[in-house]
Amino acid sequence: MTPMTTYLFNPPAIQSLPIRGQQERFPINRIFCVGRNYHAHAVEMGRPVDKSVEQAFYFTKSPQTLVETGATVDYPPATHNYHFEMELVLAIGKEGFRVSEAQAHELVYGYAAGLDMTRRDLQLVARDKGRPWDTGKDIEQGSVCSEIVPMPGVVIENGAIALEVNGVTKQSSNVDKLIWNIREIIADLSTYYHLQPGDLIYTGTPEGVGAVVTGDQITGRVEGVAEVALTIGAAE
Ligand code: MN
Hints:
Layout: E1 16-18, E2 25-27, E3 31-34, H1 39-44, E4 58-61, E5 66-68, E6 71-75, E7 82-84, E8 86-92, E9 108-116, E10 118-119, H2 120-129, H3 134-137, E11 143-145, E12 149-150, E13 160-165, E14 168-174, H4 182-189, E15 200-202, E16 210-211, E17 217-222, E18 226-235
Parallel strand pairs: 3-15, 5-11, 6-18
Antiparallel strand pairs: 1-2, 3-4, 7-10, 7-16, 8-9, 8-15, 9-11, 9-12, 13-14, 13-17, 17-18
The protein binds manganese (II) ion.
Residues 33, 85, 87, 116, 202, 204-205 line the site of manganese (II) ion.
């Protein structure tokens, strides 16, 4: 019998999300995010995308940044321009490496509605100086997600995506405007990584991103998937 591993201190908890209609929770492995995946958002960021000559690019957020929908989070330190980004989130249910677009659906467990919260001031400085995006994106309590909605093998190709702050619409688009669609994201990301069950992929945000302040109530949804809500608390 193998001796039980003992640790110097308690290791970090496994992050997980509820699954609609099931008792089991969905354990989170990694969080990938697609950058600039809607044309109108790429333009508002001052970096239009020409898909004929550009590849998709990705960044990651640590699983420890995850918070469930309905949370109240602290306004984070070191920013004066904390932004919402409403996104369709893809939950991977099977492993895959160098997956073809034709087989990409086999990796889909389900979907969720998420917020890729961003220190826009730090992200833009990093971008313009050629530095990593980590402090702009990998933010404690900065990856917000709804329950996971099981849709095994389903490729979502359209559906309204929208976000309001205090009841005022800020983002309103459709996931049919994704520059790199679900099949393309899975196939391309799997050329860099062995995708694994528990991986989440935030697929990018449409136009209309903006800053929040303490007290703001954010609500968003992806048609046919789920809703997500977040309240911005006081600065730490
Ligand atoms: Mn994003």
